[in-house]
Specification:
Blueprint: H1 22-36, H2 40-52, H3 58-70, H4 74-87, H5 92-106, H6 117-122, H7 131-151, H8 158-182, E1 187-190, E2 194-197, E3 209-212, E4 216-223, E5 226-230, E6 236-240, E7 244-247, E8 251-252
Helix pairs in contact: 1-2, 2-3, 3-4, 4-5, 7-8
Length: about 270
């Protein structure tokens, strides 16, 4: 296995192929073979085709990350792992371990930006829970709450009202948590060696600060070819889209090389 200068190499994964079509299975095997032979650009193209065809298993993005990292594109590797974390929270421990190792090797000190404020205080746990589970919790608590309140008509006890009302409040909390889960703040990942950030949307100005490849920021606005961003340490500014990958409901890379756009999945 080739060891690159950053001293950390992500491993290729090979998931169960039993539920896949013959075309998907053959293309996956072809991509893995190309990656193992050091043909990373071809492997990236084949893994990208699988993503564009709707294959959203976490191993796909982990393998894309491995290929990008081995070909010296660590920013894109980090973007793939961040997308895998968003789409597959149940696999978070394994993906987070890969991401942490890569960030340590790159010596990136800037942490992942958070929603901050009351959102982070109330919904810090939603990253580890799937939207389906949140919807199930909402529906279960909602109907149980109203069912409990209905019992009060037959058994007029104050305690029943308290329990029913509490269930309905928890149902509302689960519903809001689902909304926060399915509408997270987009993350931008620097995919160039240096990405300048300006006070305004004027590339002729002196940069306010510079992002290094692999740095992650929150994206609060998108206007034409500009992104308004803020960092985990509170810095804000505008940067050009050409130097950033966007991680949201989709994963989007700048169009100059190996674009990858995927539909959102659960």
């Amino acid at each position: 296995m080739t060891i690159f200068r950053i001293g950390y190499v992500l491993m290729l994964l090979f998931p169960s192929l039993t539920a896949w079509s013959g075309v998907e299975e053959e293309l996956w095997k072809k991509a893995v073979t190309e990656a193992e032979a050091g043909q990373y650009e071809q492997a990236i193209a084949d893994f990208t085709r699988l993503a564009e065809n709707g294959l959203l298993v976490p191993e796909l993005y982990q393998n894309l990350a491995a290929c990008y990292q081995r070909s010296g594109q660590s920013g894109r590797a980090i973007a793939c792992l961040e997308f895998a974390l968003r789409q597959h929270p149940a696999e978070g421990e394994a993906v987070e371990a890969m991401l942490s190792g890569l960030l340590r090797a790159l010596d990136r000190q800037l942490p992942r930006p958070s929603a901050g404020g009351w959102r982070e205080a109330l919904f810090f746990w939603v990253d580890r829970v799937s939207p389906t589970l949140l919807v199930g919790g909402f529906l279960g608590l909602w109907f149980m709450g109203w069912g409990t309140l209905a019992l009060r008509m037959k058994y007029p006890r104050k305690g029943i009202s308290v329990v029913g009302s509490s269930m309905l409040m928890l149902a509302m909390y689960a519903g809001i948590a689902w909304w926060e889960k399915t509408h997270p703040v987009p993350i931008g990942v620097a995919v160039q060696a240096e990405v300048p950030v300006f006070f305004g949307k004027n590339a002729d100005d002196v940069p306010r600060f510079t992002l290094l490849e692999g740095d992650r920021v929150a994206v609060t606005a998108m206007e034409d070819s500009w992104l308004k961003i803020y960092t985990a340490d509170g810095k804000t500014g505008w940067t050009r889209t050409g130097g950033m990958a966007l991680v949201a409901g989709e994963l989007k890379f700048p169009p100059d090389k190996n674009p990858l756009t995927t539909e959102s999945g659960v």
